[in-house]
Specification:
The complex is a heterotrimer. Chain A is built from eleven helices and no strands. By secondary structure, chain B is of the alpha/beta class. In chain B, helix 5 crosses helix 6. In chain B, strand 4 and strand 5 form a beta hairpin. Chain B has 14 helices and twelve strands. Chain C is an alpha/beta fold. Chain C has a domain of 131 residues: P-loop containing nucleotide triphosphate hydrolases (Rossmann fold), CATH 3.40.50. In chain C, 30% of the residues lie in helices and 23% in strands. In chain C, strands 6-7-8-3-9-10-12-11 form an eight-stranded mixed sheet, with helices on both faces. Chain C has a four-stranded antiparallel sheet with strand order 2-1-4-5, with helices on one face. Chain C is globular. Classes of the chains: A mainly alpha, B alpha/beta, C alpha/beta.
Amino acid sequence: MSEISVSVSASSRQQNSWRKRWWVPIRRQPSAIAGLLIVGAYLFLAVCAPFLATHDPVLQDFSVALQPPNGEHWLGTDSFGQDVYSRVLYGARLALWIGFASVSLGLLGGMSIGLIAGLVGGPIEWALMRLVDSILAFPEIILAMAFIAVLGLGVENLIYALGVSFVGPFARIVRSDVLQVKALPFIEAAQLMGVSSWRIILRHLLPNVMSSLLVQAGIRISTAILLASGLSFFGIGVVPPTPDWGLIIAEGRGFITMAPWISGFPGAALAILLIGLTLLGDGLRNALNPNSESR
Amino acid sequence: MIGARSTPREQVAIAQDLSSDELLHIDSLTLRRGKASVLDEVSLTLAKGRTLGLVGESGAGKSTLAMALIGLLMAPEVELSGSMLYQGQELVGLSDKRFAQLRGKKIGLIFQDATTSLDPCFTIGQQITEPLRRHLGLSRAEALERAVELLDSVGIPDARARLSAYPHQLSGGMQQRVMISIALACDPELLIADEPTSALDVTVQAQIMELILRRVRATGASAVIVLHDLALTAQVCDDVAVMYAGQIVETGPAHLVLEQALHPYTIGLRSCVVEFDSAELVPLPGTVPSLSELPKGCRFFSRCSYALPKCQEQRPKLEWREGRRVACWQLDVIHLKDASR
Amino acid sequence: MSIFQLLDIEKYYVVGRTATGEEKRLKALDGVRLEINEGDTVALVGESGSGKSTLVRLMLGLEQPSNGRLFFRQTELRQLDRQARQAFSREVSFIYQNARGSMNPRMRVGDILGEPMLLHRLCKESEVRPRVSALLEKVGLSEGMLDRFPSELSGGQVRRVAVARALASEPRVIIADECVAGLDVSVQAQLLNLLRTLCTEMGLTLVFITHDLGVASYLCQRTSVMYLGCIVEQGPTVELLTKPLHPYTRALTDSFPSFDRPLNAALKGEIPSPIHLPQGCRFSTRCPDVQEACRHKDPPLTLHPGDNRAVACLFPLRVEVGVT
């Protein structure tokens, strides 16, 4: 009976401590709050897109093409008669999905390479780092384009392409973090105590590498979204009529004087999301960095 | 203050005689940083040619006081009030520009860690000659000659060759000597040293402290030295001010205050000092309170074994007792307890 | 019962090559003989460059000696098999100088203290929490510390947690590297009293590195004074400090600030570089009583006749009977 009460109070103590550790420093950063609000709003819209959309985003209806925002089509229609509002909404969904998925992929790959390189050292580290260097030699967008050329267009291939191009930077970051943390006294202290190598990696090394890594990952999401939109804009990203913002902007390019809303709204949506992500990333970095002065 | 006199009246008379010999007169200096009360109505005087030690633990405000004297506080969250008279000139509210004229020329400063206080990008020679050329207007050649003299006087072998060395090429002790020579370059009237030997080995510490004293006595300068080692303070300083949480709790001749302490905090500190034959250390209970949550009265209240309810409400003023000034409501009780031992 | 036995331990690091291609060696330890028995409280005293930290790292097995042999309970340290090494980790605890850095900043105090218990299987998982609470109480910390992170603790508190963690594995030996340096005097006093009580109560063997002679005298019955990689004097602490035999020990005690005597800068000059050790006696370049023979012969650590002391000096200071 007492054991149960102990564990309950322990978990509530834990809850309070999490709040203190994560929420309070974040709350103090106005940029983090702003970023959180913006990204949160987008997430909500993206998740609820099916319920919030007024029309099917890929339904074409030439009879209502190029209409300005009105009661029926809140943000107007494009040259195919597709509802801009619904497309922007689903575009948010797509953008966030591409962002998270490609960064996760890159993180997984980069972390594996970086961990092995940092922990093992020696010739293996050398070889892996040269591999990473060769990936990093190409600008991300070029690399992504090359992969698209091989794999073909489409959301899935876009995610793979972007993911691979992120492996390089993440591998570098993880390796240098691992090297840095490896040299800290508490790792040696754990070894002295007789803690097994696996446990040191999992319990002592990784948690200290992860936090800065996650912030980096968050920042990369905005890069991923921008890259994806860029590639789609050039026509080497998603396949039309997929509601991708870059694609919509490209489609509206020819009508920029007559129907600015086609490019304008997705453009604004993209810009605001990127700003929100950047603010959130900055705010998180400041909040979680114990040395930061702005805490 | 000058020496161990027993009656306040005599003391006042002497004080009036000595007002022309007073270098520094601090009156009710109060410093707030945000919610924290870092210094609370600190009052001190320093006569010419005397050495004053500031002792206390973390949060006592001794480093802050030293920095305030030389105008190196971080404004803007800092509110400084009260008065600091340096040879009649008010330092509180002095502009940065005017302070810069004083610093280096009249007031010299020795930091704790020479490694981080010497600029790693400039040679020793450049760093010593800078104040000489700036404040004394010496030419480059004259300044270099003087630099060699200074390095010699602080015991650096091969002084001329060292001028072109960079700080990282010297040992910790050598770097500290260079710091001292920079501080003394323009023969300042007041030397401020913030824990000048804490980062050094004990044998080097002795050398450096001796050097500082020798140079100070040779030039007749006064010194304010922040130290945490009580025994060192007793040997090195003429007078001492014991600080706790931003207040001065006891001040007077160093040997007297530290070895025959009257204030409970000083007594407590003294019994924590580890010596070769310490039978049992009696540590002070508790820890230094946070500077933003301090009682209205005596700040030592929460850890004092003599505390009365009165102590929490009313702040005791410094009063003359047995040749030193001490701020405590329970002095008679302590005195009796001492006498009965 | 011998715990540690060090025979002619040498440790050098190669720091480059001379113009002729020879190795430039930094000699951190130059022939150390030391024996520590169960229940001993030993202070390793020395200034920078003395090699005391290196010696302790060798004793913990973090590095291997370049020459010489190191025994733990009569088995050579480098020959300990996995099981024995695990037992060693449990029996010998180390308290780092940088207490905060020696703890995982992402682990709570409760987990930090529980880790050695679970690792060495000292109790069931359900018993860990009460044991950890008891440990916190022993070092004078409240149970509320359990859920805090090291970054939330003050300097004194984090040192206490380090002491608690050292005790968590129920060790027989504690090795501590300057674990009270840099603290406020009252906090230092609290910690010293704690260590003293623990040692006497639990019969621990203590190896304490310090540069502070007062701390050495308070905690340790025996002291070894090190200079430039060698032990230059060894013996019961109080006697060693009040009647030193080696000129360096005397210089240390003279330089130590005291209320009773004026400050005495007994030693001139700086510690020579361990890359270029002086010829003959390593202290000859600074010794106030140096004689010609000192520059040619490096004196070994020899037992002083009549008592439990040893000194490495060709002309040790005379200890006058009846004079302190």
